[in-house]
Amino acid sequence: MGNDLVVPAIVAVTLLTFGIGFYGLRLARTTSDFLVASRVVSPTWNAAAIGGEYLSAASFLGVAGLILKYGVDVLWYPVGFAAGYLALLLFVAAPLRRSGAFTLPDFCELRLGSRRLRTLATVFVIFIGWLYLVPQLQGAGLTLATLAGSPYPVGALVVAVVVTANVALGGMRAITFVQAFQYWLKLTALAVPAIFLALQWQADGRPAVTPPEGPTFRTATTVVVEHRAVLTLPDGQSREVRPGDELTFAAGEPVPEVSGVVTGVTDWLLPSTAGADDRGLFATYSLILATFLGTMGLPHVLVRFYTNPDGASARRTTLGVLALVGVFYLLPTIYGVLGRIYTPQLLVSGQTDAVVVLLPEAALGAGTTGRLLAALVAAGAFAAFLSTASGLLTSVAGVISTDVLGRGSVHGFRLATVIAGGVPLVLALNVVGLDVSQVVGLAFAVAASSFCPLLVLGIWWRGLTDAGAAAGILVGGGAAVMAVLLTVLGPPLTGWPATLTAQPAAWTVPLAFTVMVAVSLATRRRAPADVGRTMLRLHAPDSLRL
Amino acid sequence: MVAEDPVPAPRRPDPSRAAGERHAPEPMTRVAAEQRPGESARTRVVLAEVSRRKHRAGGTRTELTQQTRVGEALIHGLVRAQLALALQLSAVVMVGLGGLPWLFAVAPSVGRMTVLGVNLPWLLLGVLSFPFLVAVGWTYVRLAERNEQDFTDLVQRPER
Q1: In a mutagenesis test of the B interface, which of A73, A90, A273, A328 is the best target, namely the one with the most B β-carbons within 10 Å?
Q2: Contact at CB, A536 and B67, closer than 8 angstroms
Q3: Residue A458: phi, psi to the nearest 5?
Q4: Hey, are the CB atoms on A281 and B134 less than 8 Å from each other?
Q5: Which of A253, A539, A546, B31 is paired with B94 by a 20 to 30 Å CA distance?
């Protein structure tokens, strides 16, 4: 396999990213330009840039893959990814911008005046940033391996090097232009092929997405298994398959039932129902909580808000992001649904994350149109890896340069970028087999259980103390981190323990809030004396210029 | 103002005594000397009046920046109004979106309904949830800006 247009498309995206980056570098003349874009980015540009930065491998590839695999229940991922911006808008956007905090550790120090809390926040920012960077690099490796047949490490290495160089050389100003460009590229790369796919589906006589006999192979297919699973064949026999096994299916043959994948028609089409098992409902609400509340705690999202000139424009920017992201998330569903018809082999091989990049050629054939569209999708996927990784790297590097290296210079920032990019690359090359969306979901859960309570209580409640904030982050965030480590590295779990660790937000978020409030009330005397002035600064309208 | 003051800075705390010492022998000049400190005192009174007038014009603003009880109460009111707005709109989302998993769970027949050949859950989550979120966000921005405008009007309202 191999599409000769994919590599040129990816090279073009990379060069454009570099090109716009250097164009921006020519405009960046001062340290302020370099680090925070001098705060002169207009809401429109900023909204596109935030959208571009936010739509990661998980959104571009992962959501469609999950829909293909699990059906309607995982539609909560895109809904939650978008709704996170609404929570950000309602509770955080304008006051946070007015606070003048550039990073989450800055906010801790501004609001609570505690250096130790700042250090704790720094540790969490770096953890979340790296947890989020690894799947981006993995997605790059997977895409390049699937489409161009290159070894897995190549894609990860390319993205890591390009992004590190671009962030280190271009800084924030350049990144704003790059990100804004990449939002529109990502939207186009999913929207145009989606139109062709819908037309092809019409031309094929609208094959049923959920035929009563279950999904079938349209053409003779050979599947190379990527993940260990148990298949249940139509005649009732079950068979265990391992990575590397090759299975051949004739055209029209039904897709075998795969353990861990929802192949049954009703389970895929209909929401999980109450009754025998409440775990599905718990997992759904946990996911809702993590994604709705996690977005505001992601380090690369907050840095962006500093580039708004004032609180009111931060609000308008957030609304713009919500709209742009909402438009984008209409598209992955189409890929996930059509994937049931055109790429059912992914259900067997386990590589559902590849559905977006494989679907154009699978549906339209390997003619010029199919290959061109596949190349376009690959370019969009690469834009997703590059932009999210850039944003994460900028914020992690910013935190490392100011809080770990203790230097605010351009040189210090460059050194920090190399450190911040190197660690996740090593992790991505060594930890293979993590599910892109699952890891991103866990990063959201950690952010929702640590920084969400800190921001919401810090902005709206005078009674928050440094001791309370630290205790809440340590207990809630720590519990979420433990759940992440158990899920990723621990032994396979079943039943309730598996649900509680795979989707921890529903218990870790309330825990974090409770501990933060309780300890703050117990240490009331530690509340900062200047809380009145801080509140004034956070909430007074910009037009008063107090 | 300091530059215009003829008395050297270190002696300024007590200008009348300094002038008295210097001009004690001549009564005539003492009158003049006594007038001079009076003059500088008058200058200060004028300045104080000017600054008092400024205070009066931006009284509420000063209450805010000086963290007086009135200022605290004012900003407290704004924070409460904005928080109440945010909580009300999140309640709308909690019911509108957050209620769906529960609804589908307790009433599976709702999940099986189809509209234009598409199952209702797919339509609600995959399509309609996004315009719903944007509409809530748009409402929030409008109302939050109105709250802030009300606050600004209150602070900048002329006192008389």
Answers
A1: A90
A2: yes
A3: -65, -35
A4: no
A5: A539
Q: What ipTM goes with this model?
A: 0.85
Residues from chain B contacting residue A70 (CB–CB below 8 Å): none
* Cβ-based contacts of A544 with chain B (< 8 Å): 61, 64, 152, 155-156
Q: Which of A29-33, A252-256, A293-297, A499-503 has the lowest mean pLDDT?
A: A29-33
Nearest to A541 among B86, B130, B152 (CB): B152
Cα–Cα distance, A210 to A216 (Å, whole number): 10
Return the higher-pLDDT residue of A315 and A404.
A315
Residue with tokens 């699937």: A146
Domain range A6-209+265-544, CATH architecture: Up-down Bundle (1.20)
- Alpha helices by DSSP H, A204-277: 265-269
Instruction: Report pLDDT digits (tens) over B128-143.
Output: 999 999 999 999 999 9
- Structure tokens given for A295: 């977005």
Residue A422 confidence (pLDDT) above 60? yes
Q: What angle do CA A59, A474, A446 make, to 5 degrees?
A: 10
Residues in A touching B145 (Cβ below 8 Å): 312, 315
Residue A43 is predicted with a pLDDT of: 76
Q: Which of A380, A377, A318, A296 is nearest to A80 (CA)?
A: A296
- Helix/strand/coil percent split, chain A, to 5: 75, 5, 20
Nearest chain A Cα distance for residue B108, angstroms: 6
Contact A329 B152 (CB under 8 A): no
Q: Is the pLDDT confidence value at B4 over 50? A: no
Q: pLDDT digits over A54-66, tens only?
A: 888 778 888 888 8
Distance of CA A81 to the CA centre of its chain: 8
Per the CB < 8 A criterion, the answer to whether B19 and B34 are in contact is yes
Measured between alpha carbons, how far is residue A460 from residues A96, A314, A345, A469, B86 in Å?
Answer: 11, 18, 51, 14, 11
Q: Is the Cβ pair A319, B105 closer than 8 Å? A: no
Is residue A41's pLDDT more than 80? no
Spatial contact of A390 and A163, defined as CB atoms under 8 Å apart: yes
A-to-B residue pairs, Cβ atoms closer than 8 angstroms? 133
Interface probe with A: pick from B61, B102, B122, B157, most Cβ of A within 10 Å: B122
Interface contact A539-B75, CB threshold 8 A: yes
Among B111, B125, B134, the residue with its CB nearest the CB of A323 is: B134
List, for residues B41-83, the tens digit of each pLDDT value. Answer: 454 445 444 444 444 445 666 666 666 667 777 788 888 888 9
The residue with greater pLDDT, A254 or A195, is: A195
Q: d(Cα A96, Cα A304) in Å, to the nearest integer?
A: 11
Q: Compute the C-alpha angle B102/B105/B109, nearest 5°.
A: 120
β-pair partners for B115: B118
Instruction: Give the whole-angstrom CA distance, residue A488 versus residue A192.
Output: 36
Residue with tokens 């699973």: A229
Q: Which helix (H) or strand (E) holds A241?
A: strand A238-241
Rounded to the nearest integer, the mean pLDDT of chain A is: 80
- A430-474 pLDDT per residue, tens: 766 666 777 788 888 999 999 999 999 999 988 888 888 999 999
- Per DSSP, the three-state class of A14 is helix
Q: How much is the pLDDT for B39?
A: 47
